[in-house]
Design a protein that fits this description.
heterodimer; A: about 300 residues; alpha/beta; Rossmann fold; two-stranded antiparallel sheet; 9 helices; B: about 325 residues; seven-stranded mixed beta sheet
Chain lengths: ~300, ~325
């Protein structure tokens, strides 16, 4: 977690060398790849339970992203402090694909940001766990998201602000693959390389499916990595269900230099871990019925 | 009681409200090192250039990408800055949902400055003359919406917005208009000011129509013996209900005047207050469900009936409706 104080390539005037201004808090020892995979399955179980209890929500992408979230929060990737969520030196995280908040809320609960018992209130009246992340509810929510593409633009501005201040904090932002159909994603991608935001790390859950079917049928987004590269980004492709590869990709992104932001395209499977959900786009935005959920949890528990 | 205005309007150079914004931005940045401005390839026209020239490190060029400009402004506010994102009024609306979710719903400290609002944008034509922005912004929770009446007030409004917390929208114009206020004229966000005393009809206006309302009041007094109270409702949201109700109670009838669609603009906001709190006869001067067209700014105001004469005519009509 030691941050390099190497001088930033200044894209704009007035940039100091990066600093965190305060010590990185002691964190639990990072989980290894096997432990990360177990945690990912726990996040999957939690996501299924939350969406089924709410009888709504987005389990498919939550399951495909679970390994990335387990790695980010428990593999020592993100500098954060659950005991002090607004720690100034923290890395920032923005969930631009806000609809997969079940997996994020599950990770935050497990990390100790709020009692895990609160996960059962997801999408209910009065709950802090809104259907899409809403700023002002949980302390970890930097900005309200759920309208696709917007969180990514905000992440770019936040990375720019941190860079202007010479802060070492990184900005991580999660995107869905269908989300990149939004034009503003490419506006922000252009601006991020223009301003040499190497402190910005985007990761795309490339599960290949969106609400209406396969991305390449709904609106072709390939060649995806080449598109990002053409926009001036480092693009890394990795197996989004292999904790070792995920860790490796995040660590490469964190040490990226040369004034380029980095995107990691995680090749994943929608509904990963539950055979009857896998690669079926109907589970993008639909909760499992109770009996199916129980079956899914039984399957996932074997891997948790 | 009417507040002090500029006693030497004719000898004060005319300026556009966008000019006041540019001056206010520089003054604010001199006081607050966290101020930063963004523009979408319109540095000169929005007057953000005045800040950029003095403090290049406080300027972010967003390019022709308004959604991302607004999103980056939201992100910059999360890094503890006070961002002002500026573009032409119609282009601001391209970022409508970003404004709604990233800024309003998140209640972030972002200031949006829309120059070139209204018919007086002129020759560029109907596409460029936004007449619907107030409808959008005043419907958004958490937003403060301000339409200053002249350049000096725009400067004060810019500084006040920068010093206040939360999302603010500044509605500004391109056309040079008389500076009707003075340094002494009070300005406080959310407080309407009486610019002329009168008891027969209340004329409530915002933006450059305040000047037209004052002219209308003078001609009403001179030619019709009607004494109009003129109220500058620069803050459309939060609206000064007390001032509106007091004026309606005192005068018994109201005319509104704005450089915007009458639907869902400032006049509608006044009508909502009157309807609930103090129903009195009302006439609204504004654009009536039409788009703009090419022409000179002042010609267009005349062509669309946004003039002192039309305000006076509406006042005469509404006075007759009083019980």
């Amino acid at each position: 977690m030691q941050k390099s104080a190497a001088a930033d390539a200044a894209a704009i005037p007035g940039i100091a060398s990066p600093s965190r201004n305060s010590a990185i808090p002691a964190q639990a020892r990072p989980a290894d790849a096997a432990a990360i995979s177990k945690i990912a399955n726990q996040l999957r179980i939690s996501s299924i339970r939350m969406t089924t209890a709410a009888n709504s929500g987005h389990p498919g992408g939550s399951l495909s992203s679970a390994d990335a979230f387990a790695t980010l929060y428990f593999g020592g990737v993100l500098a954060h402090d659950p005991a002090n969520p607004s720690w100034e030196g923290r890395d920032r995280f923005i969930l631009s694909n806000g609809h997969i908040c079940p997996v994020w809320y599950s990770a935050l609960g497990k990390a100790g940001y709020f009692p895990e018992s609160e996960l059962a209130t997801f999408r209910q009246l009065g709950s802090r766990l809104q259907g899409h992340p809403q700023k002002g509810t949980l302390p970890s929510i930097e900005v309200s998201t759920g309208s696709l593409g917007q969180g990514f633009c905000v992440a770019a501005g936040l990375a720019l602000g941190l860079k202007m201040d010479g802060k070492a904090s990184k900005v991580f932002v999660s995107l869905g693959d269908g989300e990149v159909e939004e034009g503003c994603v490419w506006e922000a991608a252009m601006a991020s390389s223009h301003y040499k935001l190497e402190n910005l790390i985007a990761f795309v859950d490339r599960n290949g499916l969106q609400q209406n079917g396969p991305t390449e049928k709904v609106m072709g987004i390939e060649p995806l990595a080449d598109k990002w590269r053409a926009f001036g980004w480092n693009a890394i492709e990795a197996d989004g269900h292999d904790a070792r590869q995920i860790l490796g990709a995040f660590n490469r992104a964190k040490t990226a230099a040369g004034g380029r932001p980095t995107v990691i395209i995680f090749k994943t499977v929608m509904g990963k871990g539950v055979p009857f959900m896998e690669n079926d786009h109907q589970w993008h935005g639909k909760a499992l019925p109770k009996e199916k959920a129980e079956e899914a949890v039984r399957i996932l528990e074997k891997g948790a | 009681m009417a507040v002090a205005l500029n006693a030497n309007v004719s000898s004060t150079p005319a300026e556009a409200t966008r000019d006041g914004f540019g001056k206010g931005l520089v003054e604010l940045a001199e006081k607050n090192p966290r101020v930063v401005a963004l523009s979408g390839d319109l540095n000169d026209s929005t007057r953000v250039d005045w800040l950029r020239e003095k403090f290049p490190e406080k300027f972010v060029q967003a390019g022709i990408a308004e959604q991302n400009m607004v999103g980056m402004a939201a992100g910059l506010s999360l890094s503890g800055r006070v961002p002002f994102a500026a573009t032409f009024g119609p282009f601001m609306l391209r970022a409508a949902d970003h404004i709604r979710v990233s800024i309003a719903f998140s209640n972030l400290n972002v200031k949006l400055a829309a120059t070139h609002c209204g018919l007086t944008t002129g020759e560029d034509g109907g596409n460029a003359q936004v007449l619907e922005d107030l409808a959008f912004f005043r419907a958004l929770p958490n937003f403060t919406v301000i339409a200053p009446c002249d350049s000096l007030e725009a400067k004060k409004a810019t500084i006040a917005a920068g010093e206040a917390a939360g999302p603010h929208y500044l509605r500004l114009g391109r056309e040079k208009t008389p500076t009707i206020t003075s340094e002494e004229t009070p300005f406080k966000i959310g407080r309407a000011e009486i610019f002329r005393d009168g008891g027969d009809v209340a004329i409530i206006a915002c933006g450059i129509m305040v000047g037209e309302a004052l002219k209308a009041a003078e001609s009403l007094a001179r030619e019709r013996k009607i004494e109009a109270e003129v109220i500058n409702l620069h803050t459309i949201k939060p609206i000064d209900e007390k001032a509106i109700v007091a004026a309606a109670r005192k005068c018994g009838c109201v005319v509104t005047a704005e450089e915007h669609q009458v639907h869902a603009g400032m006049g509608s906001a006044v009508a909502e207050v009157l309807g609930e709190k103090m129903p009195v006869p009302l006439r609204m001067v504004g654009v009536r469900d039409k788009f703009g067209t090419s022409g000179k700014g002042m010609e267009l105001l005349k062509a669309y009936g946004l003039t002192a004469e039309k305000i006076a005519q509406a006042a005469e009509e509404v006075v007759k409706l009083k019980k």
